[in-house]
Each structure stands twice: as structure tokens, then as C-alpha cells.
Amino acid sequence: MSPDYAHCYRVLGISPGADWRDVKESYRSLVKKWHPDRFPESRNQRNAAEEKIKAITEAYRFLEEYHAQHGICPPIQPNYVTRASVEPQPAAKPQNAPTSSSRKNTGRRISLWPRRHATFGVMIIGIAVVVFYLVEDAPDTPAPINTIEESNPSVVGAEQTKTEPAVPEQTEARFTIGSTLGEVYTVQGTPTRTESNVWYYGQSKVYFTKGKVSRWDLHPDNPLKVIAPINDRTTLSFFTRGSSKGEVRAIQGKPTRESENLWEYGASQVVFSGDRVVAWRESPLSPLKVTK
Question: What CATH superfamily is the domain 5-70?
């Protein structure tokens, strides 16, 4: 079942079909407005603010997913006209319409439509014909080029000659030390439960201090979408996609062989894009300390 995008627009307080920048600005403004730390003196208000943040974040995530796939904000279809409004109405009987008896008495047929009405009808038909041909003759809009292969085939050939492994683009959002409640909602989703300043995601935990992430406990069965600072070793037992080279070296140790985008640990390999992990190939003979 597709999301109710009209409801998403209402939650964010913007008009349907708004520019994506307006969506982001409204989202950030509402997250600041309903931040739970703004209601420290009332537990009820704080709980209400947390629920409000959940609804705002969920609405933003639905619009964000649509925008990422289509490049525009989801349009809202207009309501269909009800059947009663399009049913034809009975034509009013002309007041001056001659009766059958009057036609018999005059001996000639009298038209029910004045001549100017007939002329107006001919003009309407003519305009409709002209519009039809203009639409038929309009040139089709060329389809956009969606792939690199179509726009520049020579680039593909150049890429195929490289010896380095292909590296997928890293687009997944992550949170880290100092991220806010709203940012964690956006990245990780709704927690399975909350206790005071701790959010649980299965067996993993995220700890908050004054509304910002201070640390986390990561369990391999319930991975978190995090990027840990290099100098924070107390929370690191496993590395994952988005971990830095420094984190991998601290957790897994020195690689047996390494290049710019590929580190080898015996029969296993870790693939990087820049300084971040994007993939790995694990061999049972050389296990990696990773969480999927």
C-alpha cells in the first residue's frame, strides 16, 4: 500500500508539489520546534513532542524516498468529479416553443433554435477541430538520458580497463556521536522501545545526553547505521559499511596486503570508496569482525 502523500504534506505544513528545498526547510524547522529538550519541565509535553517528532520524521522519509526515486516531490491527484455532477440535466422547455397545433395552422415548420445559436455551435466545433490538430502536431519530448553508457560510451570502455574492483556508490545515511533525536529517527527509524535516555533497536542501544547521541552498544544481530569517530574505541567491536579505514585497522588489525581501495585479510577482502567501507568478501578461513 503506497503512503498517503497528502497526509505527509499536511504533517509538514506545506502545499502538495512543493519544491524539495521547501520540504527540507519545513522538516528542519518542525524538528527544532518539537525537540523534546524544549519541554524539560513537563513529562506529558515531552512525550507529546516525541510522538510529534515521530510523525514528522515518518512523513519526511516517505517524501524523501519518492524524491530520491523520481527527482520530484510526489504530486497529488485531484479528486474525481462525482457522478451526480456530470449527469446531464433535462433541457428546459422553451417558453415560446410553438405547439403542434400552431405548426399545423401556419402551414410551415418553425425552428426551435434561433439562427445565432446555430452560428455559435459551428464556431465551437471549429475551435475544437483546430485544438485537436495542434495537439496532434506537437513534437514529442525526447526521453532523458538516464545512464552513463547512453551519454558517453567511451567512458564505459575506459572504466572497463581498470584493474581496481568496481566500488558501488555509498548513499546510505548514517548517524554518529552528536547526532540529534530527529537525525537518529531519520536514519535508523522508530526504536523498538525507549527508556529514559536510551533507545533500543533490538539488542543494540543508542544513548543520549541532552538530546544528542553520546555513545551506543552495537550488537551484530541488530546493526546500527552509525559512523564512529576514529578516537572513540570504546564502542567499536565490529565494523560495517561506512566505517573508516582507521576504524577497520583498529578493529581487524593490520591487513596482509593493501591498496587504495582494497585491503586483504588472508582470503577475505574489504573494499573502500575513499576512506569508507562499501563492501567486503568474507572467507570462512579468514573471518572478519563485521556486522551486516
Answer: DnaJ domain (1.10.287.110)
Separation CA 236–CA 248 (nearest Å): 10
> Burial, 56: exposed, middle or buried (Cβ in 10 Å; 0-12, 13-18, 19+)?
buried
Closest to 267 (Cα-Cα) out of 256, 251, 252, 258: 256
Residue 265 three-state SS: strand
Measured over the CA atoms of residue 190, residue 193, residue 197 and residue 198, the dihedral's sign is: negative
- Rounded to the nearest 10 degrees, the angle between the axes of helix 43-70 and helix 20-33 is 170
* Domain regions of the chain by residue span: 5-70, 181-281
pLDDT in tens, 209-239: 988 898 988 887 899 998 866 454 445 578 8
Q: Which of 165, 177, 180, 167 lies closest to 276, judged by CA?
A: 167
Distance, in Å, from the CA atom of 50 to the CA atom of 27, rounded to the nearest integer, reads 15
Mean pLDDT score of the chain, rounded to an integer? 74
Rounded to an integer, what distance in angstroms lies between the CA atom of residue 177 and that of residue 228?
Answer: 7
